[in-house]
């Protein structure tokens, strides 16, 4: 894991790959608080391939803006595969983008449990053709370190996964 130092290069490469395809991306972020969007918009010309972001720290925002099912939040918790997938799908629809990443996790130092310790993060990546998500993948990570380190690792993995998803489709 790690590789946080690669974030500017990852964001630059993501932008180049998206532009080759005339695609746009978006983010739905909880535990990173907009850090992925910040990394993307640090790249000059990001307006050519970045639609916008939703920082959905509160569950109400996840439901109201990203169409996350309140019952799933209650049943599985915000830090779950189900919620991350719905956040990614909701972001695609809201922003009318081609690619989305969603993150929900426990950055710490508090908030962890035996079942979901600090550093647990679900990341979901989604691709849409037209108005329909056609490809949603999600993965659970267990990052280590303090809050800033968990956030940095999450941002790097989110960008890495989004870049891989874009590169899996011919330009």
Helix and strand topology:
Blueprint: H1 7-21, E1 25-29, H2 35-41, E2 50-55, H3 59-66, H4 70-76, H5 81-95, E3 99-105, E4 120-129, E5 132-142, H6 147-167
Parallel strand pairs: 1-2, 1-3
Antiparallel strand pairs: 3-4, 4-5
- CATH topology, by name, is Maf protein
The low-confidence parts are none
Domain count: 1
**Helix/sheet category:** alpha/beta
Helix content: 40-55%
Record field, number of beta strands: 5
N-end to C-end Cα span: 28 Å
Give descriptors for this structure.
171 residues, alpha/beta, Maf protein, 23% strand
Describe the structure in your own words.
By secondary structure, the chain is of the alpha/beta class. It has one domain: Alpha-Beta Complex (Maf protein), CATH 3.90.950.20. The protein has six helices and five strands; from the N terminus they run αβαβαααβββα. It has helices spanning 7-21, 35-41, 59-66, 70-76, 81-95, 147-167; strands at residues 25-29, 50-55, 99-105, 120-129, 132-142. It has a five-stranded mixed beta sheet, sandwiched between helices. Helix 1 (7-21) packs parallel to helix 6. It starts with 6 loop residues before the first helix and ends with a helix. 47% of the residues are buried.
